[in-house]
Design a protein that fits this description.
heterodimer; A: 33% helix; B: 307 residues; mainly alpha
């Protein structure tokens, strides 16, 4: 029975292995129970948590709790108000003198000085540090020396940044940019403590900032515990004891945890649950426009689409799309039909206008057919829409838009859909200018500023101008707005430039994307800011 | 025996190289991962070029592969885009998935073989028919349906267990996910052992054993079961690899941060070092599990000898 003893031995080994692993686990991290602590859903940040390297919501969520910059956007109005800045002065909209407030420090007691900002910005701009957000520093004089188009940098610091004294520094921009101070609320402009540079990996394991929270513990890929910093010098102290961020792979699972009381806050309600959300959460559900707009951009590098007269066809296609019905049926009102090229999250004061697109964004199939015929018809009698279809119900709305167009024209299936499997693949096709029909372009603004919705997308040669739209008048108006020292006049000038978009229709505004969130009965005063990130410091735990 | 093992281990080398190359090729053919790093914005050309250079993406594919394999033999699986080394991710993910797999295998063996023996011995009776119908139902329902259903019933509706697993993934929280993961294989194990038992129960050696006057329990466990288990062991052995790599759905539903989670994340973000690294390890697991199964044959059936 030699074999039998072997078999027994194997069975024992399995039993031992089971028992041994049982010893491994044990400590329970208590769901939504700890007093005064909010547990909230999270996604693994795509990049290391450096302020100048974070360009998505999940990392941004943490930075918003850990850092305060020169300015901060009011979560409700989107207005940029001074935070660490005492004043930002300029006489020519090009050279700025920035003075800091007294009393600010990092949570390791290091004071926040002008040097903390200048070092952080130089780090963010340096091409060797491979920071995603480095183009944000490209307006500063000397950026090309630390971030050349190819090769190694010629300098370590940007010559446009000069520290005058611990509380003051000056910034020289390459061109006039009147609303530049308003951009400083963006997280890429956060100050950094010395430990970021001296012990970089240590800092990444446990980031130190100057915001209302400190990091208690961070296990990458799993979660982060943030606690209220009692000695926080700012006025917006945390109203709760802390936040436990838990990584979820699937927002459905996070939603299940919220419903069963294991989680307090979910900041992305999955599409499949939208029909239950009223029942499950009642008024503990937030759904409001964010700084995101989805558009269909025309490939104007293709003469078929850009020859004179085609603007009528482009407008016609816009008028053939039934935005109201699509946002209601497919998105269950988590998208808002677009009426301009910005976002309602900017507010009327910030430049949002519900009239600028006018009739061109109103569904009218008869008029659409007329316009397209007047413009000479669709190029080749056909139109193909392209988008990645791995997320965001892109396939569904593209089909709906096509149906809408086909019905309006009544010429059979002239509109077809070209679904692309992955975002990376779509990205490659889009940025190599290979697409010959309208394609999806989503845009999430980095700061609540009308300039950010227009200049990077439609200015001649701009970085994200994928359709290669070029219009002298539009460029002139944008330049004029950037020179304008009065904010209201600058915005008026930007809106003026939007009217050209309405005439030329280089891209069709489809809808504004909303931010959504659901929360448990333990919380109150939950709100989302324009970036669809919950304003954690204001949340109260009952 | 020793020579046989060595021969098998040597055979693994070409399989390993071939499969990793295929995976490498497929993952890298998915498109430029750097472009997707920048979201809706256009990538900054200088930064993107730097990242490509650091990741060897500016080299031709075969050079990239050689460089990657060279690094692997030095124990370096590269760095994921979030700055963590892939080895670090593996150290976190594999123990969790291994635990989940063991729980699943445990249920497969205990429940599957028990049900198989019971229905095999009572072939054609009500018990047998019931078990057969039940396994048919289980096999035909996809894992994500049973997963969400059981999670909703036990986790939300009745509140007996937490619907999701905490980061440490202790064993008691892995019971429900383990059952969900095991269900389909469990049904196969039941069917396999049932057929095997039903055939062997009429074999001469069983009649002999019974005629010798051995107690029925001893006949079943010592003689019948041992000979009937060979196909089942093969199945469970290959299933170990399948369960470890195929837990993506289950791990997503129960928010378990194991291998499936890392693979899913890696594929979603086009993060080639993570995907290739994890799949490489899974390939090794598969190969070793298969070797183990072949060796177990000899243990179960003394007639099988390896020279």
């Amino acid at each position: 029975m030699r074999g039998a003893t072997h078999a027994q031995w194997a069975a024992c080994a399995v039993a031992v292995a089971l028992a041994a692993t049982a010893c491994g686990g044990g400590s329970d991290s208590g769901g939504g129970g700890e007093a005064g602590i909010i547990s909230s859903s999270w996604g693994d940040p795509q990049n290391p948590l450096e302020p100048a390297n974070t360009n998505e919501v999940q990392g941004g969520k943490v930075l918003d709790m850990l850092f305060r910059g020169l300015k901060r956007y009011d979560p409700k109005t989107g207005e940029a108000t001074n935070m660490l800045a005492e004043s930002i002065q300029t006489t020519d909209s090009q050279n700025f003198t920035i003075t800091l407030k007294d009393g600010w420090k990092f949570s390791n007691d290091e004071p926040v000085t002008a040097q903390s900002f200048v070092d952080a910005w130089n780090y963010g701009a340096d091409v060797r540090n491979k920071q995603n957000n480095s183009p944000f520093f490209s307006d500063i004089v000397g950026y090309d020396d630390v971030h050349p188009a190819s090769g190694d940098p010629r300098a370590k610091t940007m010559s446009g940044l000069v520290v005058k004294d611990p509380k003051t520094f000056t910034v020289a921009l390459k061109d006039k940019f009147s609303t530049w101070p308003e951009t400083l609320g963006y997280q890429a402009f956060s100050p950094l403590p010395k430990s970021f540079f001296t012990d970089h990996s240590g800092w990444l394991d446990k980031p130190v900032g100057n915001g209302p929270y400190t990091v208690d513990s961070y296990s990458k890929g799993t979660g982060m515990k943030l606690r209220k910093w009692d000695a926080y010098p700012g006025a917006d102290k945390a109203q709760n004891g802390g936040v436990d961020l838990k990584v979820y792979t699937d927002n459905n699972t996070a939603y299940t945890d919220l419903i069963s009381g294991n989680l307090d806050l979910v900041d992305d309600v999955p599409a499949q649950q939208l029909k239950n959300v009223k029942n499950d959460l009642g008024d503990r559900y937030i759904n409001q426009p964010a700084l995101i707009i989805q558009t269909l951009t025309f490939p104007l590098y293709d003469p078929q689409w850009s020859k004179p007269g085609m603007e009528k066809v482009r407008q016609g296609i816009s008028r053939a799309i039934n935005r109201d019905e699509i946002t209601k049926q497919i998105f269950r009102e988590t998208r808002t039909p677009a009426k301009d090229w910005t976002s309602p999250a900017l507010g009327e004061k910030g430049g949002f206008s519900s009239t600028v697109c006018g009739d061109a964004c109103v569904y009218d199939p008869a008029e659409a057919k007329k316009l397209i015929q007047e413009g000479g018809g669709l190029p080749g009698g056909k139109v193909t829409l392209t988008s990645n279809v791995d997320t965001g119900s892109h396939r569904d709305w593209m089909d709906a838009v096509c149906n809408s167009i086909n019905n309006a024209l009544g010429e059979g299936p002239v509109c077809t859909v070209n679904p692309v499997g992955t975002f990376a693949d779509f990205r490659n096709q889009q940025s190599s200018y290979k697409l010959t029909g309208p394609f999806r372009s989503g845009w999430q603004a980095d700061y609540p500023l009308i300039q950010n919705f227009l200049q990077p997308l439609y200015y001649t040669g701009a970085s994200s101008n994928y359709g290669k739209f070029s219009n002298k008048q539009f460029d002139d108006l944008v330049d004029q707005a950037n020179r304008e020292s009065d904010a209201a006049k600058a915005i008026a000038s930007f809106q003026e430039s939007e009217k050209i978009l309405a005439e030329q229709m280089p891209s069709i505004p489809l809808w504004y994307q909303n931010g959504s969130a659901g929360y448990s009965e333990r919380l109150e005063d939950v709100a989302l800011n324009q970036f669809s990130v919950p304003v954690y410091d204001q949340i109260k735990v009952i | 025996m020793g020579r046989y093992v060595i021969r098998r281990l040597l055979q693994m080398i070409p399989v390993f190289i071939g499969s990793t190359f295929l995976i490498f090729f497929m993952v890298y053919a998915l498109g430029d991962p750097v472009a997707a790093l920048f979201g809706d914005k256009a990538p900054d050309p200088a930064t993107a070029a730097r990242i490509r250079k650091d990741l060897y993406l500016d080299q031709p594919l075969w050079k990239q592969y050689l460089h990657y394999m060279g690094a692997i033999f030095r124990g370096d699986f590269g760095t994921a885009f979030n700055g963590q080394s892939v080895t670090e991710l593996m150290a976190a993910a594999f123990p969790v998935t291994l635990r989940l797999t063991l729980v699943a295998i445990f249920f497969e063996i205990v429940i599957g073989i028990t049900l198989g023996v019971i229905s095999g011995l009572r072939r054609g009776r009500t018990v047998d028919t019931t078990v057969l119908v039940m396994t048919l139902v289980v096999i035909s329902v996809p894992t994500f349906v049973t997963g969400y259903l059981l999670q909703y019933l036990f986790g939300v509706q009745w509140g007996w267990v937490r619907p999701t697993v905490s980061p440490d993934a202790p064993l008691n929280e892995l019971i429900l996910p383990g059952i969900v993961l095991a269900l389909v294989s469990l049904a196969y194990v039941t069917r396999l052992s049932r057929t095997s038992i039903a055939e062997n129960v009429k074999a001469d050696y069983v009649r002999t054993a019974t005629a010798k006057g051995l107690p029925r329990s001893r006949v079943v466990t010592r003689h019948l079961l041992r000979n009937s288990l060979i196909p089942v062991v093969t199945f469970i052995g290959t299933d170990i690899g399948a369960l470890m790599g195929g837990a993506i759905v289950t791990e997503r539903i129960f928010n378990i941060h194991g291998v499936g989670y890392q693979l899913y994340q890696g594929i979603l973000r086009n993060n080639s070092p993570t995907v290739v690294g994890f799949v490489t390890i899974l390939v090794i697991v598969f190969l070793l599990a298969n070797l183990l199964v072949d060796l177990l044959y000899a243990v179960l059936d003394p007639r099988i000898r390896y020279a």
